[in-house]
Amino acid sequence: MLETFYFGAGPATLPTTILDKIKNELVDHRGTGLSVLELSHRSEEFMEMLDQAENLLRELMGVSNEYAVLLLHGGATAQYSMLPLNFLHQGDSADYICTGHWSIKACQEAKKFASINAIQALADSELIVVKPVENWGLKQQSSYIHYCDNETINGVVNDIAGMESFNSKDAALFCDMTSSILTRPIQVKNYGLIYASTQKNLGISGLCVMVVKKELLSKGCENIPRVFDYKKCFEARSLVNTPPIFAIYVLGLMLNWLKEEGGVIEMNKRGQLQAKALYDVIDSSEIFKNRVAVKYRSCVNIPFEIEDKVLQAKFLQQAENHKLLGLRGHRSVGGVRVSLYNAMPKQGVINLLEFMREFELSHE
C-alpha cells in the first residue's frame, strides 16, 4: 500500500511523530485527566506550555531579550491591518514591497489605515525577476518597510535583509515570514519585526507568531482595540483574551521536534537538497516549466506548469492516485505547486520525483 504524502501550501503536512503525540495526549494531557482542548489558559500546565514555546523559538531563531515574542490571533492576515494600526501615527507612511499575492494583500489592507508607498518590485519580463533595490523608489521618511521574503503562490524569494546593496536608513524592516520561518538561518537583529502564521512550518492554523523589537512597542500608537494592541499583548504575555491553546500546544511540539531534528541549520540543508533535486527534474524536462529566474526561486514553494492543460489535469489526477496530494496550484494561478516545508520527509520528495520522471516518459 502506497504511503500518502501531502504537498499542500497550508495547512501543511505535520510529522507523523507529532500526530501520534497529539493523538495520545488529546484525551488526557500528561496525566491531568483533561484534554488539551479543555485546559485553562490560566492553568500551570498551559503557562508551562507557553514558556516552553517561547523559549524554544528564541533558542532556534536566536532571539535576544531586545525582542518580544507574541502569540497572536488571526494568522498573518490579521497583521496586515494591525501593523499600520500599531505603528503608523497621523501623517506617517510606510513602504510596501510587492512581489506577489501576499505582499500585495498586505499593502491593500494597510492602505485602509494610512498613506502607503506601494512598490511593484517585479520586473516586466518573460521570467519572474525582482527589480534592483535602487529602482524601487523607497521613501526617505518611511516609518517601516514591509515585505514578504517568500511568496507561496508564485514561488519568489526576496531576501531584502540579506542584500548587501540594501540600506534601510532609519526605517525598520518588517517581514512576513509565514512560509519561510525556521527553514533557514537569519539574523534577527536586522529586523524590526517578523511575523508568521503557524500552519506551514510551526503547526496548525489559528495562530500567528511575532518577534518584535521592544523599542518599537514603546513608540506604538494609542487608542487601539485592546486585543489588537501589540504593547498590551506583550504586557499580558499574549493573554489579553483566551488564546488559541491547541495551536500553541502544537507549536511547542513542532519547535521541540525541530530542535531534535538538528535545528534550523539542518532544516536549511535538507530543504536546499530537496529543492535542488526538484528543480533539476523541472529544468531537464520538456513538459514541466518554472517561470521564476534562478536567482529568485523559492526552496520552499515551487510552482510549475504543463502547457497542455489536458495533460496537466491528467498529471494531477495520476499524482493523487499515487498518494501524492496537495499539488494543485493556488486557485488564482492554477498549475502545479510543490510545498517543501520542514516536515516534508525525504521519501515524499523521492516518490514525487520518480512519479514526475515516469509521467514524462509515458507522455513523450
What report would you give on this structure?
This protein has two domains: 18-260, Type I PLP-dependent aspartate aminotransferase-like (Major domain) (Aspartate Aminotransferase, domain 2), CATH 3.40.640.10; 263-361, Alpha-Beta Complex (Aspartate Aminotransferase, domain 1). The chain is α/β, with parallel strands linked by helices and 364 residues long. The protein has helices spanning 16-25, 44-61, 75-87, 101-110, 214-217, 230-235, 245-260, 263-283, 309-321, 346-361; strands spanning 5-6, 67-72, 93-98, 115-120, 144-148, 150-151, 156-157, 172-176, 193-197, 208-213, 288-289, 301-306, 324-325, 336-339. The model has no long low-confidence stretch (mean pLDDT 95). Helix 2 packs across helix 7, helix 3 (75-87) runs parallel beside helix 4 and helix 8 (263-283) runs parallel beside helix 10. 35% of the residues lie in helices and 16% in strands. Strand 6 and strand 7 form a beta hairpin. The protein has ten helices and 14 strands.
Could you list some keywords that capture this structure?
single chain; 364 residues; alpha/beta; Aspartate Aminotransferase, domain 1; 2 domains; seven-stranded mixed β-sheet; three-stranded antiparallel β-sheet
